[in-house]
Amino acid sequence: MSLEALLEKIRTHQAVVGVFGLGYVGLPLVIRFAEAGFEVIGFDIDEAKIAAINEGRSYLNTVSNESITAATQRGFSATSDYARAKLLDALIICVPTPLNRYREPDLSFVTSTVENVLPYTKAGQILSLESTTYPGTTEELIKPLLESQGFEIGQNYHLVYSPEREDPGNKNFTTQKIPKVCGGSTAHCLTAGVALYSEVVNRVVPVSNTKTAEMTKLLENIYRAVNIGLVNEMKIVADKMGINIHEVIDAAATKPFGFTKFTPGPGLGGHCIPIDPFYLTWKAREFGVNTRFIELAGEVNRAMPAWVVQKTADALNEQGKAVKGSRILVLGLAYKKNVDDTRESPAVEIIHLLDQKGALVDYSDPHIANFPRKREYRFEMSSVKLTAEALSSYDCAVLVTDHDSFDYKMLSETEIPFVDTRNRMPIQSGSTPA
Which of 28, 34, 94, 394 lies at a CB distance of 3.0 to 4.6 Å from 329, suitable for a disulfide? Predict the structure, then answer.
């Protein structure tokens, strides 16, 4: 199939789109393509997800059952059978790219996905990688795999990188409304990528090549990581000086230019901000560059859970109690409010550190009924229903994730020590800012 034929299939919505990885990025993208009238096949190795989708059930609280049902009625189907990739005109990869135990990029999910789909690829397709990664991945890793099948990139096969920009739970910026950056291996590849995404998002931002698109994604999140690291460090300094850092930030934010508001917290969470900086620092070493500024921000942010634990110990100490043996309730397990995503959540590390110190720890999170499986942590825990009676049975509570559904009036009236890492409670209520 020629480029012109592919563009025509995309323009007329006759192209069949495959999305690999049906998580927080892939599933909303599937729904958006289905809304636009494309036939979509979703691929995932998790059979539980496949079963849920085919039964019309969502496993993400940011995606409704109704959205799943509507998408399937429009022709969306989910499978773990890679052989169905032979039906596709467009392949979009949205699989995880975590760090390994040495904080080095783990691209095994990306490579295994491409290798599994290679036997079913055909000339004329477009493949888009959306997973966050280091600059050069598309050209150095994906392109050779496709070329091993005899494809000529830009001639009879099209390759682009278009980083995901999902913000789970943000109703103001849906998949359709978030501008889509896209870089192609060649000019023809870029043309195909822009055409594909232009059918489902309001604005596509073309860049000169895949490396530029990959670096754009990293810059966006490193910018946030560095600035959050700055305000986290400022919080520690202000705390020592007896200054409310949130009052300082709010006052500084009144300046109409030259200042962007970032707020401190218990540490970084989610798949992007805690991880993206290390993709660049790892790749930069190949070029003999030490990214000291970025790494310093990472050190500050990774130290915040330990800071919260120390503030918890201080709050207990004022009551004549030690951490060891104390019953502590952690409020919020998700990495951000109003979602059920625990990836890289600082709450998990805080629970781990408190447990190591001998505390008897529980958690309460209305969005997460049971502690999920983790690579490094295993806790047999279920969410505690937050009531005044339940709260009074603990020696201390720590607000880590400020879900809107928490009863803050009730929390403000508690008589137990309360550590607030999100500035959600008035200081006069007796809470300890952290």
Answer: 394
